[in-house]
Amino acid sequence: MSNGAVPEPDPTKFTGADAAFLQDFATLCTFGATVGGGVERQAGSAADGMQRAWLTRILQDKGFDVSFDQVGNQFGLLELQSGAPYVLVGSHLDSQPTAGRYDGAYGVLAAAHAAFRLAAEWQADGTAPRYNLAVVNWFNEEGARFKPSMMGSSVYTGKMTPENALATRDAAGITVREALEATAALGQGTGPTAAYAAEIHIQQGRSMERDGITIGVVDSNWAANKYQFEVHGEQGHTGSTVIADRRDALLGASMLVVAAREIADHFADGAVHTSVGQLDVYPNSPVVVPSLVTLLLDLRSADEDLLAAADRMLHDRIGQIEQAARVDITKTGSHCWPVTPYQPEGVALAEKTVANRGLAYARVKTLAGHDSTNLKDVVPTVMLFVPSVEGISHNEHEYTTDQDIISGLHVLTDVVRSLCLGELDPR
Predict the structure, then answer these.
(1) Radius of gyration of the chain (CA)
(2) CB under 8 Å to 7, separation ≥6 — which residues?
(3) DSSP assignment of 371-408, as one string?
(4) Which tens digit of pLDDT belongs to each residue from 88-108?
(5) Alpha carbons 89 and 84: distance in angstroms, whole number
(6) Most buried by CB count within 10 Å: which residue of 21, 200, 301, 420?
């Protein structure tokens, strides 16, 4: 798959509502489509605005009321019990640059189609669920254009203030508020009150495909320490400045990148992941020794003791790098979260649901952050995975088979039905 074209969704191999879902997914893939078979629709971009407008239309066509909250979270609301709280189900539509089609987008569309099926079912048989239903598209989960990631769900859950979110600027100096206004996505209020939440997502790893697992039931997340560092040096001429006199910020940043990888390699069996995903170099001229580099570095582990040890190693290395490269390194931002479990009653519900479908399943952990990792801190939350072919993600070749995304839609529909009927309510 990594060397070939990503197959197009094929609705002709399915019937009825499943074919309709795949047809809508094929349409969703056209927004911000790239020549390499992926998408680019960063938060608040024109492509993001177009896909949000399209989602509004398909929700309204099915009788859902659509609204945006104060930081651009998009909700499709189906009121079933006046005054009752909502089951929130969804993910995010924004993407990384030159990203795959499935990350986030699958979860939003699966949420919408699960809601469509349940609304039709309840209308046909006269069922009155205990809770209302909301399809949600969280704003800026990826954090590619605006930092930090999971911004919309962080505001919803009280982990970030709306004022700070709206004032955040991208690299061009555009604020979140300005981007939301430009895409007609800046609303009011705090969104619907949640009773429960659910999200389905591609795994973004290899283990489920390797083990023949159709549905992953997520029982906890890895911990993560994400830092922004500035490496300060001094500008100089790349030809005439004597090597011994240089204070090369890019050299110091490069040593920090290598240190992060060496720290990961220190721990056996991939127990700690580290990475540097972004470097901004100033003045970024071919004949100037850089005076400033800003970089984003993260460390992740399922074991908080190992993460703490890795963090200590990193900070020990910072002092060594400062001396070796004759630079100053300052930490200018952080975004950290611990290992936290999903509620066991939600895990048990998901396992029972998948077993009733006769699908292969296993408990898994999420190495990546998701909006559900925020939601589970305030309401009982169910998180489901479907396999990723070859584990590819944040890449135009990201792919999950049509059969797997349909199976995931069926399971999600069953889970949301149970949540809306109050099956997890205390007895």
Answers:
(1) 23
(2) 399
(3) HHHHHTTTS-EEEEEE--GGG--SSTT----HHHHHHH
(4) 999 999 999 999 999 999 999
(5) 16
(6) 200
Phi, psi for residue 355 in degrees, rounded to 5 = -60, -40
CA distance 42 to 141: 10
CA-CA distances (angstroms) from residue 153 to 122, 162, 187, 373?
29, 11, 15, 9
Helices (H), 160-274: 162-167, 176-182, 207-211, 249-266
Cα angle 16, 22, 23 (rounded to 5 degrees) comes to 85
Q: DSSP state, 245?
A: G
Residue 369 banded pLDDT, cuts 50, 70, 90: confident
pTM for the whole structure = 0.91
Answer whether the bond into residue 148 is a cis peptide, omega within 30°: yes
Calpha distance 79→82 (Å, rounded): 7
Show the tokens assigned to 267. 């721990």
* 156 touches 374 (CB < 8 A): yes
**What are the tens digits of pLDDT across the range 144-188?**
999 999 999 999 999 999 999 999 999 999 999 999 999 999 999
Listed residue (15, 142, 130, 22) closest to 408, CA to CA: 22
- Sort strands 381-386 and 194-202 into parallel, antiparallel or unpaired: parallel
Q: How many whole angstroms separate alpha carbon 131 and alpha carbon 367? A: 31
CA 341 to chain centre: 18
Q: What are phi and psi for residue 99, nearest 5 degrees?
A: -100, 180
Look up residue 128 and give its two tokens.
């009155």
Order of strands, edge to edge, in the sheet holding 292-301? 272-282, 292-301, 223-232, 328-337
Does residue 53 register a pLDDT over 70?
Answer: yes
**Comparing C-alpha atoms, which of 391, 393, 382 is closest to residue 424?**
382
Residues 108, 41 contacting (CB under 8 angstroms): no
Express each pLDDT in 216-264 by its tens digit.
Answer: 999 999 999 999 999 999 999 999 999 999 999 999 999 999 999 999 9
In the chain, the N- to C-terminal Cα span, in Å, equals: 48
Cα gap 318→330, rounded to integer Å: 9
